[in-house]
Structure formats: structure tokens, C-alpha cells
Design goal:
Order of helices and strands: EEEEEEEEEE
Shape: globular
Number of strands: 10
Strand order of the largest sheet: 1-4-5-9-8-7-6
Oligomer: single chain
Structural class: mainly beta
Number of helices: 0
């Protein structure tokens, strides 16, 4: 486990705007409680509370990954109108203490959904 620091900063803050994620013309997540995670030189990622997603459209996949700063990530397929979008969503279900704020949240790959609206 690595700790965020000057060489690899991580910041997590409430996101001011409403975030809506859609696929095949349907809303799959809609939240005014998203978190914005900024990490080193990567683009910021919006994490949406699970309670604000239509979790019935998600199926846990077998994919996992490890981040030395955040922990083990689990992935979910997104299934809308019979179309499966593999590994479209990820979540740190037991994140490292430095990023514990993202526990219970989901993030979406922009290229696996139709839109992530930030308004």
C-alpha cells in the first residue's frame, strides 16, 4: 500500500454538479452526491454513490485490478436492453484508508457508456 503524497497526490472532494450517466437512451445513474477524485496527472474521475445508480443493470464481472494507492477494484458489466457492455463500471469496495471516501461509490468508463453529463 502506498500513501498519496507530493509525488503522487490524490484529492477527493464533493462534486458541485449533478452527474447523469446514460446508455442506450436510459439513465443508469443520476446523482447530486458524486465525488471528484483527482489523482496525479490523470484526468479526474467522478464516483457516484451506489444508491444513485440503477444497480439492477449491473452484473459483477470476473475482472479485478490493483492500484497501489487505492486498493483492489471490482468491475461490473452494464446490461441495458439486452446489450452487454463488459467492464463498464468499477468500484473500490474496500479501499485503502487514504481514499476511504470512495467506498460505496461507482465510476464509469466514458467510452463504455453513451454519456456522462456533468451539469
Amino acid at each position: 500500500m502506498r500513501e498519496p503524497g507530493p509525488d503522487h497526490p490524490i484529492g477527493i472532494a464533493p462534486h458541485a454538479n449533478r452527474v447523469r450517466v446514460s446508455a442506450r437512451g436510459q439513465s443508469v445513474a443520476d446523482s447530486r452526491r458524486a465525488l471528484r477524485l483527482s489523482e496525479a496527472s490523470y484526468l479526474p474521475v467522478l464516483y457516484i454513490p451506489r444508491a444513485d445508480a440503477r444497480f439492477e443493470l449491473f452484473r459483477r464481472s470476473t475482472r479485478t485490478s490493483h492500484c497501489p494507492y487505492k486498493g483492489e477494484a471490482s468491475y461490473y458489466d452494464l446490461i441495458v436492453d439486452g446489450e452487454v457492455r463488459p467492464n463498464a463500471v468499477w468500484s473500490y469496495e474496500d479501499p485503502f484508508p487514504a481514499v476511504n471516501a470512495i467506498r460505496g461509490h461507482l465510476a464509469f468508463y466514458p467510452d463504455k457508456v453513451d454519456a456522462i453529463e456533468d451539469a
